[in-house]
Amino acid sequence: MLANQIDIGMMGDFPLTINVTTFQQKGNGVKSIYIASLAYSPNGAGNAVMVPKNSSINSLTQLKGKQVSVPFGSAAHGMLLRAFRNVGINPDKDVTLISQSPEVGGSSLKTGQIDAHANFVPFGELFPFRGFARKIFDGAETGIPTFHGVLVRSDFAKENPEVVVAYLKALLEANKMFREQPEAMATNIEKWCGVEREVMYMFFGPSGLQQINPTIRQVNFDALKNSVVTLKQLGRLDASVNPEDVTKWADDSYLRQAMKEIGLNYDEVANAKDFVISGEDAQTKEPIKDPKMAAQLWLKGNDKVMNFASIKNMMTMLQKLKAEGKQNQGVVFVHDRNNGWKLLAENSFYVQNGNEISAFLTQKDAQDFAQKSGVKVVDFQGLQQFYAQTQ
User: Is the distance from CB of 72 to CB of 99 less than 8 angstroms?
Assistant: First the structure.
């Protein structure tokens, strides 16, 4: 963008911060303007810390004295530093941090050359889905928002406002399609970029890890403020950059015009409810009332995801399919009872109390919940064995 080879770009909050501030220093009067948002998480979901699949490490505290890689200067880097400090680990003394790109970090996890790797969207779910990594920490546990935004060179926007508006109208149409046809859009993205449809669905489907909202809101500015502070601490940003200036980077006038031309109300879109699982249970036909307790099954070869009001109902369906000889079941999603985060069922922890089954991202959260009820924590394999014995 700085070399005037790209007019419109899309990037995460940390690269966006570097982009805008670099233009301020070297743009010769041209600015990079933040004009719209893509997906966001109000608490940081999408970033994650992973260990090799068969690692004995289950928590951040167990990484003390270990070697951890992360793309330096990224949102994942900021998340990792904050997460370490929150559990009393000094990232400068207690661990060995090295910079690795997502591709190199994934290879290092596969071969066991690294104890842990931290990364951003979509790798925190992609590597576990591909079976060689396991997530031990989700960025949502930091409570710090993250997002991706759309940027445009100011000279291009001034000369071609109709092109910028047309681009944003196309973005709005794509958002609408994703909300109406999440499975079909996720399948298309797999064809276009090679990221499996199930992973894309985890992020942007109902009750996904990130919500799609094109407007520019306080949650986006909060993410940018965090980016400024963290990048300054890392020495990646000029000390003179003021985090309170991030609101000056944005101009939502092009987005407002795009919305006006297709009959959308900006404020209504900005305040729209989150896209969560709803409808009826595929097994019992009962209404799905609590998305946090819901479960989903995406069978291989099927165009649609099956929704369940409870993990119990989903497990009953799995046993029914197994009895029918359908062993190749596809992917099962559950949701963290405390926070609603979408999880891969096989990497989650469960507490069964009577007919109610609760899923958790971390073993510790599951154990804390289990102690209150006097029951044990089981993994997905243990849950399957229990239901196999009861049929």
Answer: yes
